[in-house]
Each structure stands twice: as C-alpha cells, then as structure tokens.
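During the no-cost extension, the postdoctoral fellow (Dr. R.K.) reprocessed legacy sequence entries with the updated structure-token encoder. One reprocessed record is reproduced below for audit purposes.
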Amino acid sequence: MLAGSPCSVRTATTCNTLLKELQQIWMDIGENEAEKDRLLIELERECLEVYRRKVDEAATAKVRLHQAVAAKEAELAALIAALGDINTHFPLTVENKSLSLKAQLSMVTPLVEELKVKKDERIKQFAEIKSQIEKINSEISGYSQLVDSVSSLNIEEHDLSLRKLGEYQSQLRTLQKEKSERVDKVLARVNEAHSLCNVLGSDFSETINDVHPSLYGTSLEQATNISDSTLEGLENVVLKLKTEKNVRFQKLKDIAASLSELWQIMDSTMEEKGYFSRITSVTRLSEADIVETAALSLEIIQQASEEVERLSKLKVSRMKELVMKRRSELEEICFKTHIEPDSSTTIDKSNAMIDSGLVDPSELLANIEAQISKVKAEALSRKEIMDRIERWLSACEEENWLEDYNLDQNRYSAGRGAHLSLKRAERARITVNKIPVIVDNLICKTIAWEDDRKKLFLYDGVRLVTILEEYKLTRLQKEEEKKRFKDQKKLQDLLLTERESIYGSKPSPRRASSFRMAGNGYRANGNGSMTPTPRRSSVTSPTMESMTPRSYSGRQNGYSKETRRLTTGPLNFVAIPKEDTISSYSSVYGSEPGSPFQN
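Re-encoded structure tokens follow.
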C-alpha cells in the first residue's frame, strides 16, 4: 500500500491509537519495559508477515493476470489463425502495453469470446459439409454406416478458414454431381431391367433384389444404393436380360417362321390362326421395338412350340390332301391356258409316291408350287396369242351361226326379231371375211413367239402352227368343194333350161314338184328318184372340225372331265383390229362356207 494515500493515513491513525491504547493498558498492568519491547517486536513481526503475505498474494495475482493476458493473446492469435480472418486486428499494440493487466485483459477477452462464437459456427459449417461428404462417400463406397453426429467427424480445428471451407464445398459439389450421375445411371438401368422383365414376363422384384434390396424398397427412408457394386450388378443383370431377350426373340422368330410355313401349306384361315397370329406380328418388329407385356415370355414360347408340334402332326395327315388340291389347281390353270401339265406329279402318281414314302410331301408340294409359278409365267407370255385364238374361235362360231342362218328358209319372213337376225348376219359376214387374215396374223405371232423363246407354242400338247396350217388347208379344201358344188348347180340349171326348151315352159305338176324339190336341195336321178345334194354334208365335214383348237382341246385334255365352253357372251365386232382387213373371199349365195366349230 502506498504511503500518503487516504487509506494508509486512516490505517496509520488507527494503528497509533491502538498502540497508545496498548501502552496505556501495559501501564495499567505494570508491564516492565523489556516485556513491552518484546511485545512490540512481536507485533511488528506479525505486521510484517501480514504485509508480506498480502504482497505475495498481490504478486501472485499479478502473475495470474499476466498469464491470463498472455493466454488470451495466444488464444486470440490461435483463433485468428484458425479462422483465417485477416480483417481482425490484434488489440494489444505497443501503446496498449502500458495499460494495466486488467485493462489489457478486459480489452482482449470480448474479442476472444466473439471469435470463439465465430469458431463454433464455422465448426458447425465444417461438420455439416463433412457429414454430407462422408454420407455421399459411404453411399458411393457401399457402406451403410452414415455419420450421425459431429463428434464422430474429424474436424481440423486449426484450419477453419474460408479457403478450407470452400475446398470442402467444392468437394461436396463434385460428390453431389457424381451422386446425381450415379442415381441417373441406377434409375436408367432399373427402368431398363423393368422393361426387359416386362417383355420377358420375369419377376422384376426378384431380379432386382438380387442386386440390392434398396433398388426395390417400399420404405421412404430406404435410400437407393448407388455404389460401384450396385452399378456393376445392374449392368450384369441388364446384359443378362438382353441376352435372354435376344435368345427368346430368335427362338420365337424360328417358331413364327415354322407357323407361317405350316399355315401357308395348310391354307389356314384367320380363325384357325387365332391367337398365334399375334406372335408372327411381334416377330416382324425389330428386337428393340418389342415392348408388349410378356411378348417373349416362356409361356408364350411354350404355347407356340406346342402349336407348331400340333400343326406338324396335323400336316402329315393333311399334306396328301393339300398336294391333291394344289395339283388340281395346276391342272385347272393348265386347262384354262391350254398348257400340258407336268405328268410327273399327276394325282395318281402323287398318291402312290406319298403312300409309299418315296418322297416327302413337302418337297412334292414345293415341286407343284414351282410348276404353278412356271405355268402362270408362261400363261402371261402366251396371253396375246391366246387372245388372238379367242378372237379366231369367236369368228368361227359366228361362221357356224351364219351357215345355220342361211339354211333357214324363213329367215326373210316378217316374223318378230327377223330384222335383228338380219343385222347380225351382216355383221357376221364381215367377221367371217376376216378369218383368213386373223389366222395368218396368228401364225406370224406364234412363230415370232417360238423364235423368241426357242421352243414350240403348244396348244393342248399340239403345236399351234400345225393346227393353223391344217385349218387353212381344210378351209381351202372346203372352198374348192363349194366351188365344185356351184359348178354342179350351174350344170343342173343348164340341163333344166334345155329340158324346158324341148318339152315347153310349163312342166307338168309332177315335174314342177320334182324340180322344186331339186331346187330345195334334191336332184333327180336317171331313174326318176331323188337323192340329197351335198349342200351341207360336203361342206361341214368332220375333217374341218378336227383341225380347230377346240377339237384338239376336246381330244387332248384327258385330265379334265368337261370340255371348255369358249364364247358365252355377245360378240363385239367393233373391237376387231383394223389389221384384220376384209379378205378377197366372197360369199356364195350371201354366206361364207360352213364353220367347223360345232361341238
């Protein structure tokens, strides 16, 4: 305690008063001087001890304050260094060092407390970021142990700077991006696996649970696993499902091809195809486009396989019937086009070969199908000539009608419809006059066809050119026969004229009747009897009919039970081409020679 201070003055006054009071007591007691001195020395010693104790306590307090200030300074420096806060100024400068220790301490302490609060907040930020980092790392690594408390984290408190915080934030953003990419990959693989399982008819939950239960979890708290092992497992599952899909697709395509072949062979209807027609429609898609539920399931494949097996068994029993049917179709086409069918697959031979097992019915059917295709192609190449044959045959039929018409004694009667027959007769004469030109053009076309294809044009097994040439020859013979008949009639008329000049112009009724009968197609013999004139018999000889394609068709087509009926509709005389001009052949008695096309 400093001398002169009010407190020291009061203490000195009090001590002096007490000392005087003590001396008075000693005087009253009668203490000797030696005892008084001893007591005073003892009192002084005790006072010194008290002062010394107080000084020591004060010195200790000073040291503690000094240490506290130093500790606060060190703590402040550590906080500033840890936080990296370069904007915080150190309060104890050289000028502030002259202040008392308590003033220095009071100056440093608030700043330290402020930085402690800031440090705690920074630690929380670090803990939160590191917790997220550890959580994402654990999800990526596949560990399920997540960081639940700050105490479990290793926080480096010596470096809590914003720079360090930024590094952790950057690391967190990188991990979050990687997590997002992994989640997208996992979801894509899961969706792909779900689609494949849907197409294959497999149990998706069982398939995906084998990879990781979290991928098909129902709990909202259950996180989707995005570890490398999960991604790898999903890749393997998707690859396995794709391979299985490809195998089943190829198998179903083979089954569908077999079904289509069997349906075609057996001429199955849509009702018979039924449910399995959907399988063939699925196989026409590309593998990637198949998304229909259970389109490639084992059940569908099994059902299709059973259907193929059933149809295969049925095919054996129906193949013979199909062969006969297709052979009949071949013969029908050949009959319509006047082409000789292949004799190696006749119905009798086909039945014998199938029953004996010498040939596979499928091969025999394929052979007949090839023959049908060949006949159709040849029929297409023969169409122009066949049309010309039809035109020729129609003209021949019109010639037949005209001959019958000319033999009708009542053709010029005024009966109902006589004018229509007369008009048709005029048109028929024009058509009949075109027959030679039609035949010549047909021969030219046929020879050109044969030269182009290096083979003969056969009509029911006979060369058409031969038929036409024979027809021309027969027609020429018929014309010569008609000419002879005309000359003979002229001779008869001359004899009749001479007889009239001898016996008069009025013959007896009997003679007139005889001559009238001769004029009607009879002639008198030398003995007075009448014989038929060769008006019709000589012209319509069977030789002429045998030279027509119709006659050959009736004779040669042993594979058909009924003969062909060529023309059933009215003739279109306007459609006859101009190249078939009217020939120089003129009619005798207003008609052409009799047609050889009567059946």
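The chain has a mean pLDDT of 76. The longest strand covers residues 522-524. The remaining legacy entries will be reprocessed before the final report is submitted.
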